[in-house]
């Protein structure tokens, strides 16, 4: 590689890096960003997670009894597939429990988040209204 070519590559890389902005939204124009979540969004996520939790809990083990019976019968008849079916059933049970736990965690977290946001809104509203009341008191005192 010639020296001139190296210098051109360095200059091009510097030009690209000067335009690159990582890990943050643009702050030009004083904008705060566009991420917004309202209680309806959180409620929908929490409701979906709870419904999945219930459905998995209700139907996720429907095949457990017949699978275990089939595995035992196949093992008794000395078919190797019986132990394979038993392993699959145990792995299914483990994965199902992980998924049920994750759904419960999501649902509970969404409930907590809704309550936390409601508390934050109450705090902000009460603080702002207190400041407005205080300002009115100062304004009334300066009129006399």
Model description:
By secondary structure, the chain is mainly α. 79% of the residues lie in helices and 0% in strands. The protein contains 4 helices and no strands. The chain has helices at 3-19, 39-59, 64-76, 81-143. The longest helix has 63 residues, at 81-143. The chain is flat. The termini are far apart. The model is unreliable at 20-33 (pLDDT under 50).
List the helices and strands and how they pair.
Blueprint: H1 3-19, H2 39-59, H3 64-76, H4 81-143
Helix pairs in contact: 2-4, 3-4
Low-pLDDT stretches are: 20-33
Percent strand equals under 5%
Rounded mean pLDDT score = 76
Strands, count: 0
Helical stretch tally: 4
Q: Major sheet, described briefly?
A: none
The rounded distance between the terminal residues' Cα atoms is: 84 Å
| Helix content range | over 70%
In short:
By secondary structure, this protein is mostly helical. It is built from four helices and no strands.
Pick out its properties.
single chain, 144 residues, mainly alpha, 4 helices
């Amino acid at each position: 590689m010639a020296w001139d070519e190296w210098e051109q590559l360095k200059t091009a890389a510097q030009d690209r890096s000067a335009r690159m902005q990582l890990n943050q939204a643009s702050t030009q124009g004083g904008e705060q960003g566009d991420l917004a979540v309202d209680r309806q969004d959180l409620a929908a996520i929490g409701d979906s997670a709870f419904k999945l939790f219930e459905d998995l809990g209700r139907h996720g083990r429907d095949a457990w009894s017949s699978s275990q019976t089939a595995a035992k019968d196949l093992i008794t008849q000395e078919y190797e597939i019986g132990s394979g079916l038993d392993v699959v059933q145990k792995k299914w049970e483990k994965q199902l429990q992980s998924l049920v736990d994750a759904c419960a965690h999501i649902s509970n977290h969404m409930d907590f988040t809704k309550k936390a946001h409601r508390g934050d809104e109450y705090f902000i509203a009460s603080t702002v209204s207190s400041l407005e009341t205080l300002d009115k008191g100062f304004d009334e005192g300066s009129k006399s």
